[in-house]
């Protein structure tokens, strides 16, 4: 197969799912792939909170795309359109033609374009935490709980308040998980305020007002509520009718966007009914890599790999040594789950998957 006959695969989004897909495609000689990403690096997102208390940790978890994709065609730009001529348009005016397209735009993240900008942000967050005696965390999902755990472990003398609009922490898991996390935090003198949100518009001079009218004094704050899904750009493209009411792309069992034979979607941007987690985004990437290989080599579509939504399982790290794990109906907290995740946060394993030193 000559290079002029190679099928063109365009991947939009260089996050957890898109990066592994590109690494896998690079091993197959039948592909000519292009990565379009709004930033020049992959960020191992579940390591972010450790990087805020230990900025040197980010040097392993923020990886320039060219580090693991040497020689690849990579455009640092936002995709803004997909048209009927099988082209993706970017903000810089490029039109990139494809035979197959994979959407992997996940959630809207930070807007730092370069790796050095992102590393400087972690340094700034660290200085903010270090110099503040009182810290407000808004959001009691996994991000807020993990950040509180990281700060408590590294800076045990800080006064930390965590405000969450829900009736319990970690609402994506069972009630037992939320109660165990609450007990763990309160034992370490974190003040948890449930059933309230924070009105940032009416907050000033280090005083934050909650929806319940409570005034909270804090020298700094961190917003740990969920980011919007990265699909708003699709509303004016040929995929506009493929978005569900939550803004996720509707996909079939092979992770193809419904109604399109040559367009796939992977990771958090899909409507697959499961928790949105990094290791599942990796699974999506490997399923689509196999399906693209089959299609491009002229295989039988009936033999495409089907993706089975995963059973609920999650590990929430609590500082450097402890964690909370839920597998189906069983919830365990302490050192043993911590041995699974908390020391390295799977950064070494993820780097190895990308062909880099752990």
Automatic annotation (TrEMBL):
UniProt keyword terms in alphabetical order: FAD, Flavoprotein, Oxidoreductase
Assigned GO CC terms: cytoplasm
Matches recorded under Gene3D superfamilies: 3.50.50.100
Domain (FAD/NAD(P)-binding) ranges: 8-275
Top-level taxon of origin: Eukaryota
Matches recorded under InterPro entries: FAD/NAD-bd_sf, FAD/NAD-binding_dom
UniProt key word Transferase: no
MF term (GO), any: flavin adenine dinucleotide binding
Function description: Putative FAD-dependent oxidoreductase.
Family: Belongs to the FAD-dependent oxidoreductase family.
PANTHER family: APOPTOSIS-INDUCING FACTOR 1 (PTHR43735), FERROPTOSIS SUPPRESSOR PROTEIN 1 (PTHR43735:SF3)
Entry protein name: FAD/NAD(P)-binding domain-containing protein
């Amino acid at each position: 197969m000559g290079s002029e006959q190679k099928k063109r695969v365009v991947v939009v989004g260089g996050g957890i799912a898109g990066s592994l897909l590109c690494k896998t495609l690079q091993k197959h000689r039948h592909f000519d792939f292009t990565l379009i990403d709004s930033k020049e690096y992959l960020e191992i997102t579940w390591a972010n909170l450790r990087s805020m208390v230990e900025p040197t940790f980010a040097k392993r978890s923020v990886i320039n795309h060219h580090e693991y994709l040497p020689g690849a065609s990579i455009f640092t730009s936002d995709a803004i359109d997909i048209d009927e001529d099988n082209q993706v348009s970017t903000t810089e005016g490029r039109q990139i033609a494809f035979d197959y397209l994979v959407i992997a735009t996940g959630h809207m993240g930070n807007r730092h374009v370069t790796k050095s900008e992102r590393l400087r942000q972690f340094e700034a967050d660290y200085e903010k935490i270090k110099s503040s005696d009182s810290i407000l965390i808004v959001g009691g999902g996994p991000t807020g709980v993990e950040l509180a755990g990281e700060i408590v472990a590294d800076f045990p003398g800080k006064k930390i308040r965590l405000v969450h609009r829900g009736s319990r922490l970690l609402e994506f898991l069972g009630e037992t998980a939320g109660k165990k996390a609450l007990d763990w935090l309160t034992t370490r003198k974190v003040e948890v305020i449930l059933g309230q949100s924070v009105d940032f518009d009416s907050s000033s001079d280090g005083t934050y007002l909650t929806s319940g009218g409570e005034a909270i004094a804090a020298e700094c704050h961190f917003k740990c509520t969920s980011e919007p899904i990265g699909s708003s750009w699709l509303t004016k493209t040929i995929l506009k009718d493929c978005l569900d009411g939550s803004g996720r792309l509707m996909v079939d069992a092979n992770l193809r966007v419904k109604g399109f034979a040559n367009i796939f979607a992977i990771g958090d941007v899909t409507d697959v009914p499961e928790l949105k987690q990094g290791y599942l985004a990796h699974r999506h990437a490997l399923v689509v890599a196999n399906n693209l290989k089959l299609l491009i080599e002229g295989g039988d579509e009936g033999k495409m790999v089907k993706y089975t939504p995963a059973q609920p399982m999650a590990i929430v790290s609590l500082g450097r040594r402890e964690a909370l794990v839920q597998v189906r109906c069983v919830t365990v907290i302490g050192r043993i789950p911590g041995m699974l995740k908390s020391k390295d946060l799977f950064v070494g394993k993820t780097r190895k998957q990308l062909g880099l030193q752990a």
